[in-house]
Amino acid sequence: MTDTTQYLSQEKKSELEQELVQLKSTKIPEIAQRIDEAKQMGDLSENAEYHDARDQMAWAQSRVLEIEAILLNAKVITATGSNDGFVDLGATVVVKVNGKEKEYTIVGAQEADPLAGKISNESPLGGAFLGKKKGDKVEVKVPAGMQEYKILSVK
């Protein structure tokens, strides 16, 4: 059985809840009105407005289902740091790799943004850090080859 838990920060959970409300209360009714107006124009086979609105409705309804599934399986992570010194979800890890220091925050897949230093617990790098502590060396296969990361701190 596959684990469907979606790890989210409270901020991301609130953002998704707001998007869901906006889709259901505003966006979908607006698109439905556009579809109705396009239907009144007559021949639907060559009605670009109708087809565009139908495509947007399909996307919006699909997004609603996606958000509902995420929220149904959501577990809020707290950035309490790692009291026991081990890397866990929500922890920020400072590492040394190739002579450079880098900082990563371990987040759920929905919030991953590698350019902002947020890496998913499901990524090879994030997964390799989980359960490690300050001073540990972690080897990870990345696109550039095998890299060794030394954990300098866990907060």
Automatic annotation (TrEMBL):
InterPro entries: GreA/GreB_C_sf, TF_GreA/GreB_CS, Tscrpt_elong_fac_GreA, Tscrpt_elong_fac_GreA/B, Tscrpt_elong_fac_GreA/B_C, Tscrpt_elong_fac_GreA/B_fam, Tscrpt_elong_fac_GreA/B_N, Tscrpt_elong_fac_GreA/B_N_sf. It holds the Pfam family GreA_GreB_N. The keyword tRNA-binding does not apply. One of its GO terms (molecular function) is RNA polymerase binding. GO terms for biological process: DNA-templated transcription elongation; regulation of DNA-templated transcription elongation. Residues 7-76 form the Transcription elongation factor GreA/GreB N-terminal domain. The keyword DNA-binding applies. This is Transcription elongation factor GreA. It comes from Candidatus Magasanikbacteria bacterium CG_4_9_14_0_2_um_filter_42_11.
